[in-house]
Amino acid sequence: MIYQAIWEVTMVVHFIVILYIALGGYLAWRRPKLIWPHLGFAAWGVVQLTGWVECPLTALENWGRAHAGARGLAPGGFIDTYIEGVVYPADYVWLVRWIVIAAIAISWAGVVLRRAQRGRSHTSTA
């Protein structure tokens, strides 16, 4: 029972991390200091796309699944198991990746523009 809870909680955390990678830059529009953890998570997302390193959340979920007697994640990991072919058709992987990249770039541009706007408003009032 505890092992099933481990992999289920890990699955939820994994969804949250992926959402944060895709959309977390928008949180930095209101809380500019959040851009730093978002940069780290986005960099981690790039590393994961290369396939050089296994995601620790995937390893933890597979460990919990194995000890609970459940089947492990698909060979491509979390995204191949829960998202690709479920949320969007597998044929659109590159389109979805470009959309996520665009969303991240727009969020970062917004952070830069807001920071510049705040800088101008502070200098004009001084």
TrEMBL record:
Query: Which stretches are transmembrane?
Result: 6-27, 34-53, 92-113
Q: Which UniProt keywords apply?
A: Membrane, Transmembrane, Transmembrane helix
Source taxon at top rank: Bacteria
Q: Which InterPro entries match?
A: DUF2784
Does the keyword section mention Membrane? yes
Q: What is this protein called?
A: DUF2784 domain-containing protein
Taxonomic lineage of the native organism: Bacteria, Bacillati, Actinomycetota, Actinomycetes, Streptosporangiales
